[in-house]
């Protein structure tokens, strides 16, 4: 990620508050809930005590969420039956307040942290699709011809993946790690034949989930160079220095190192070159994202003795350059906050503008970690710039806090 930053100063004044005589039986509470569950479940009993026996106390959630509810008189926190999605949010922080009857100003607060436990609800997903493989006619048994890879958004054993073939193949096999290899030598009749292998990626969840991908395998003459990959993709900045190597394509020839490389199509303005002998692609002319954001080169590998050749596509994607730093709308922000404020109280919002366009004007906020600053007492929403309390504040210890927050440009990933 490429970005710029600017810094603004934030001063927060803490107001004195008289200490409440109410106390919770614990400093904090923790509970767990199963992902996707629609059952109402009791999570925790939040208990507080006052100075009088059997004194009526009243509880409420200060940061309401439709997924949680609390009994006003007993302090029992429960789920409401709305399912949780761990991949969207894996932790919830519920702030509970207790007060005396008729004395709402005399309250105490405690944090309940709810963790969402993973359910196996995501199938594996293959990456770098589509797949294609070439195998030479005289390839030996055990030769690896393709690696397939899948990912899973779950965690733990629910995200552990192994691979297998959907149907048994006479000539091909796959390892649990996704390497497709030759199980049996090919017959002469297989030349220029296409085999279609269906690969299965299966996770270790209960029940297990799986995904499938098709891998066409083409048998080629032993004299034809075979590229190591079915296609190549690279992303580079538009202001990359000229003559910088950006990619290495490589083809193998069973007759030895006599392969030469050329760019056959996709480069009408001769902005790229390829080393004749090594297959290293260089940038030789300036690139401009706004004029031409992507290139699809066709690279040819030729057997210098027989003239047999094969080709592969090379996708070169340009990144737009972010060359303007964000600017805060104010150099200094000030706010007052009571020391009785609960964790998560919103204090103020900072804002800034960026002169760039498109994705490069998108920004996020963060507090600077600097010696002597109070950034650990506060948090900032990376998207909105809202500053909130992260810890309980103490007026007697510190009456004024100063935090600095840069606003940085954020670049989204380009297409792949």
UniProtKB/TrEMBL annotation:
Q: Which UniProt keywords apply?
A: Calcium, Cell adhesion, Disulfide bond, EGF-like domain, Glycoprotein, Membrane, Repeat, Signal, Transmembrane, Transmembrane helix
Q: What Gene3D superfamilies does the database record attribute to this sequence?
A: Cadherins
What's a Pfam family this protein contains? Answer: Cadherin
Looking at the record, which segments are called Disordered? 394-416
* Compartments (UniProt record): Membrane
- Which CDD domains has this protein been placed in? Cadherin_repeat
Residues spanning the signal sequence: none
Q: Where is the Cadherin domain?
A: 25-126, 127-227, 228-328, 329-401
Membrane topology designation: Single-pass membrane protein
What the entry lists under SMART domains is as follows: CA
GO molecular function annotations of the record: beta-catenin binding; cadherin binding; calcium ion binding
**What GO terms describe the biological role, i.e. biological process, of this protein?**
anatomical structure morphogenesis; cell migration; homophilic cell adhesion via plasma membrane adhesion molecules
Start-end of Basic and acidic residues biased regions: 398-407
Q: Name one GO cellular component term.
A: catenin complex
What protein name applies here?
Answer: Cadherin domain-containing protein
Q: To which species is this protein native?
A: Takifugu bimaculatus
